[in-house]
Amino acid sequence: MAQDLPAPPAGPWRQAMRSIARNRSAMAALATLALVTLACMLAPLYAHHVAHTDPFTSNVAGSIVLDGHEVDIMQPNDNPLHLGLSPIGPTWHATYLLGADSQGRDLASRLLYGGRDSLLVSSCAAVVCLVLAAMAGIVAGFSGGVVDALLSRMMDIMWAVPVYLFAISLSIVTVSHGLRVGPVTVRADSLLIPIFIIALVYVPYAARPIRGRVMALRQAEFVTAARCLGVPRWRIVVRDILPNVTTTLVMLGPLLMALSLLAESALSFLSLGVQAPAASWGTIIQDGEGLIYTRPMVAVAPGLAIVVVVLALNILGDGLRDALDVRDAARRSS
Amino acid sequence: MMLALLRRLGQTLFVLFGISALVFVVFFVTPGADPTARIAGRNASPAVMEKVRREYGFDRPLPVQYATMMKKLFITRDLASYVDRGELVVPEILRAAPVTASLVCGAALIWVVVSVAMGTLAAAMKDTWVDRTLMMAGLVGISMPVFWLGQVTNLVTQSRYHDTWLFSWVPGLGYVPFGESPLGWFRALVIPWIVLAVMFIGIYSRVLRSDLVALAGEDFIRTARAKGLSPVRILLWHGLRTSMITFVSLFGLDFAQLVGGGALLTEVVFGLPGVGHLTYQALNNLDLPVIMATVMYSAVFVVMANAAVDLLYVFLDPRVRDGR
C-alpha cells in the first residue's frame, strides 16, 4: 500500500526556490547583482591589464596616448580664455574609459575598486545588523514581560533619532580618533567602523518584524507541545523558533543591504564613511561634486551604480517576500 | 481613555530621558579620545581645554556631566561653539529652523498628494501594466541616493538645460525667505521639494497600494460591495479611509525626522541654510556642540511629534479610544 501514497509535498524552502526561480524580475535582479559583484572582484585585473593605470595615485601631470596622439590628462577648459584645468572626459578607449577624476585617476578603475568597498561594507553591515536584530528580537519576543518591555523601549529610543543623524553622530566621534574598547583598538580609517555604525542604526528596523514573528510563534501549538514535554527554553529557541524565523531573516537581508548601501554612500559623501585613499561609490560622488558642471560623469557614474545595485536588491527582496509568503504566514498564525 | 493618555505621557517622558542619555553617551562616553578635546576642537590651547573641562564638569562624575549638559542645552541654552568663536548654538538652530520647515512642509505636501494618487490608482488597476509601471517607478525612487538625485537635478536645471524655456526660471542655488519674496521663496524651493519627496513618494505609494489590496479581503469591504456600492466609492471612501491609519503613523515619524535634520543631504546639495546644513558645516569643522545640539533637538522633536500622532489616534480610531 505504501507505494500508492502520493509523493510528499515539497518543503517550504524548495517551494520558495521554485517560486523565485519562476519570478523573472527577481532572477534578473540576482543576475545583475552577480555581474556587478564579479566585475568589482576583477577590479585589479581591469586596472593593471586593461586600463594600465593605478587608480590610487594622483596623476595630474601625466598624459596618455589616444589614437596615436599624446593627450594631457588635465586639459584646459573650453571657456574663451582657456582658464583653469579639467580632467579628461570619457575617452571610450581602454585607458580612461570614463575619463579621469579631479586628481587625474582613472574613473572606471576607481568605480570598480569603489564598488568593492561599497558592496563589502553594505553586505557586512546587513549581516551584522541581522545577527544583532535576531538576538534582540528573539530574546524580546520569546521572553515577553519586563525583558521585552525594556528591549522594546530601547528600540523606541534608537528609533526616535533620525537614522542618518544617528549614524553621523557615531561617525563623527569615531572618525577622528578611532575606537578603543579595552584591548581592542580600531583605527579611524578601518572599514569596521562604517560597518558597525550602519548595522547598529538599522537594528530597530529589523528587530521589530522579528520580534512580532517570534511572539506569534510562541503561541504556536508545536511550541506549547515542546514546553509541555519539558524541553529546555534554549532548545526551544534553537530547534523550534530559529528555523521559523529564518524566512523573515532571509527576506530582510536584501532590503537591509539596500538600506546599508544608501547609508554608506551618504556617510562617505559626508567624508564620514570609507576614508581616503580607499574609495567607495559615495566618496567618488563627493569627488565629483566640484566637477558636476564640467565633468558630470565623475558623479553620475557611481550614482548610477548605486541605483542599479539598490534597485536590484529591492526587487530581489520583494521577490523573496512573495516567494516565502512571510506576511501571509504571519497573519495565519496570529 | 484618561488612563491611556497618562500611560502614553509616561512613555514619552521615559523615551525623552532615554534619548538624552543615549546622545550623551555617544558624544562623551564613546571610548577613543578625551571629550574635552572633542568639544574644544582641533588644536585648542591648554587654557581653552582647561576652561572647557571646568565648564562641562569633565573632571566630575558622569551623572553630574549629564546634568550639566542638559542644563546648558535646555535651561540656560548657553551652549557655545568653541570652533566658531563662542557663537551660541541654540539660537543658531532656531534661526535655521524656518528654512528646514519650509523645505520639509512643501516636500510633505507633494509626497502625500502624489503617493495617495499613485497608490490608489495602482490598487484600483491591480495587476495591469499601470500598476506595474507605477510600482516600478516607486521602487526606482526608493533606490536613488537623495544627494545624487539632487546633483543630477542641479546639472540639468542649473547647467545643461538652464538656457532652454523649460528651466530658465530656475534661480541659482540658495534660499529666499518667504517674507522677502513669496515667489522667490517658491522658485528657490520647488526643485528641492520634488527631489526630497521622490523617495517618500516611492515608499508611501507602495505601502498604500499593498494596504488597499490587502483590505479587499476584509468583511466590511465585502459588505459594502454586497449592498451595491460602486467600486470607486468603496475604494475611496471605505478602503482609503481605513488605510489612512497606517499612512498617518508613517507620516508622523518621517515628517518629524526630516524636520529634525533628516533633510541634511538635500539641504547640503541645494545650499539651503537649514538645520541640516548647520550640522554639515559643524561636521566639516568638527564642531561637536553644534552637532550634539541638533541631534538632541531633533530627537526631542521626533518624540513630541510621535506623541502628537498617538494623541490624534486616540481621537481618530475608535478601537484605541475605547481602550481596545
Automatic annotation (TrEMBL), chain A:
Pfam families: BPD_transp_1 (PF00528), OppC_N (PF12911). The chain crosses the membrane at residues 119-147, 159-179, 191-207, 241-263, 297-317. Residues 115-317 form the ABC transmembrane type-1 domain. InterPro entries: BP-dependent_transpt_permease, MetI-like, MetI-like_sf, OppC_N. The keyword Iron does not apply. It is found in: Cell membrane. Keywords: Cell membrane, Membrane, Peptide transport, Protein transport, Transmembrane, Transmembrane helix, Transport. It is a multi-pass membrane protein. The keyword Thylakoid does not apply. GO terms for cellular component: plasma membrane. GO terms for biological process: peptide transport; protein transport; transmembrane transport. Belongs to the binding-protein-dependent transport system permease family. This is ABC transporter permease. It comes from Novacetimonas hansenii (Komagataeibacter hansenii).
From TrEMBL, chain B:
The keyword Acetylation does not apply. It holds the Pfam family BPD_transp_1. SUPFAM superfamilies: MetI-like. The keyword Repeat does not apply. Residues 97-313 form the ABC transmembrane type-1 domain. PROSITE patterns: ABC_TM1. One of its GO terms (biological process) is transmembrane transport. Its main location: membrane. One of its GO terms (cellular component) is plasma membrane. It is a multi-pass membrane protein. The chain crosses the membrane at residues 12-30, 99-121, 133-150, 185-204, 245-270, 290-316. Keywords: Cell membrane, Membrane, Transmembrane, Transmembrane helix, Transport. It comes from the Bacteria. It is found in: Cell membrane. InterPro entries: BPD_transp_1_N, MetI-like, MetI-like_sf. Belongs to the binding-protein-dependent transport system permease family. This is ABC transporter permease. The lineage of its organism: Bacteria, Pseudomonadati, Pseudomonadota, Alphaproteobacteria, Acetobacterales.
